[in-house]
Task: structure prediction
Amino acid sequence: MEQTLAYSLHETPSIVNNPTQKWLGAIDSGAYKPAAPTEDHAFVKIEDMWSDPMDESEDEEEATEAGVPLVVEPPAPRTRPPTRHSVLHQLYRAIYQSHDKLCFFAHQPAGQTSETWYLVQVNLDKTDPVAAKELGHYWVHWMIRHHIDSRTKQTRMCRFWPEVHERTADPLQPYGRIVPVRPGRQDSVLKNHDRILYEDDVDLASGLLHGPINYDGDGCCISEPHWAAMFAKATLRGIDTNNANSVEPL
Result:
């Protein structure tokens, strides 16, 4: 017995000769042996704990418990695009409320291959309100440059008067010489059967470039902001507006 317990301090008893350690599974008891890096550990390493995803619900619960209200963003309101019906009704209302009822209008005359811009004035007395509100059709008459202004001024600097002509005997071409008529006086002039107003029923809604607008302060000219708005819309439609900046006598 004394010989069995008399081990050297530098000797370790063999597992074969120590059945108690073998039965308990305490192999090499008292000796530290680090695990290989590629092998699983019996515990989770601290640095591996921080790779786990954070559960935000826990933070929300903590914030609620602490009395901090949660801010919920309200959903953005959805705006529906305007329908053609509503646009046509808005146009009719705007023209009705306009004093001078002037509109820049894109039109392709017979025999031409492209559209041209015109300044027209809406005549609601001759316009069918149902056709206007449902189809965008209006009765309009053309406005032209003042016969004196056109000799020396750029088109956009000219006064614009109703386009009134002498009536010819040709029913296919009734428009003769231009008759200068101040705006608002065409109705009295047209009482003479030898005078005719250049007018027509047009699809104003489809050809509208800008409007309805009113005359400038002097009563017969168009202000620069309205010209600029017309230029922008005409450019999108591929309409040449260079003649607005040129001098073109009637």
Q: What stands out?
A: The radius of gyration is 46 Å.
